[in-house]
């Protein structure tokens, strides 16, 4: 029963402070929209796919153990792609004004489970740069693997392509606005509850009972203001009688 009463009280507080809650939610959404659309720089992504497969002659067939060995190599290849051995050559070839660490943060490598295909994705503020970096990373990796691993089992499946109207991957404006709305709503409700709980003034009979621990036995009804503004003499007869009484006293 007490829990139900507390929930009802909270709902009353929310209803009472609804303007504050809605205002903070709208402000948060507006700020998030302005920042997402006009402040943050769009980031584009380009990706290329690399196939890891041991090359065989026409008379040889690919055995299951060969595929398993190639799958085990993929984890090693993922690390090699983002290593300075590859990225330093990419920076040199494209004349990028970046450090190896900065470029490594732009490059992400992944592969589907039980798949021999490695996906190399690159994010950049300019789409054509992302395409160039992705393709160059794949090319340099393909060139360096025979030297590093003494194998030639890398093939570029699909290079990154420059799009006419690319869509940016960051920021996600709608997601940012939705998150801001939730945060603004939580902040508004929190402030509303905080203001109500910190307010110690007595407003109702229940507040008096809780403060004194005594039951209420009576209430003084408010007196209408018009009772104090009545004319002292509403009729001429009353005015005449009052005048006569004053004359007798004299």
Describe the structure in your own words.
- The chain has 9 helices and 4 strands; from the N terminus they run ααβαααββαβααα.
- With 250 residues, the chain is α+β, with helices and mostly antiparallel strands.
- Strands 2-3-1-4 form a 4-stranded antiparallel β-sheet.
- Strand 2 and strand 3 form a beta hairpin.
- Helix 4 packs across helix 6.
- The longest helix is centred in the C-terminal third of the chain and has 26 residues, at 173-198.
Features:
250 residues; alpha+beta; 4-stranded antiparallel β-sheet; 11% strand; elongated; Bact_polysacc_biosynth/exp; LPS_length_determ_N; cell membrane; transmembrane helix; membrane
Nutshell version of this structure?
It contains nine helices and four strands, in the order ααβαααββαβααα.
Determine the N-to-C terminus distance. 73 Å
Task: Let me know the average pLDDT.
Answer: 82
What are the segments in which pLDDT stays under 50 over at least 5 consecutive residues?
57-61
Q: Work out the helicity level.
A: 55-70%
How many DSSP-defined strands?
A: 4
Described by strand count, sense and barrel closure, the largest sheet is: 4 strands, antiparallel
Strand order of the largest sheet: 2-3-1-4
List the secondary-structure elements in sequence, H or E.
HHEHHHEEHEHHH
Shape label: elongated
Bin the strand percentage: 5-15%
| Class by alpha and beta content | alpha+beta
Radius of gyration: 39 Å
Number of helices: 9
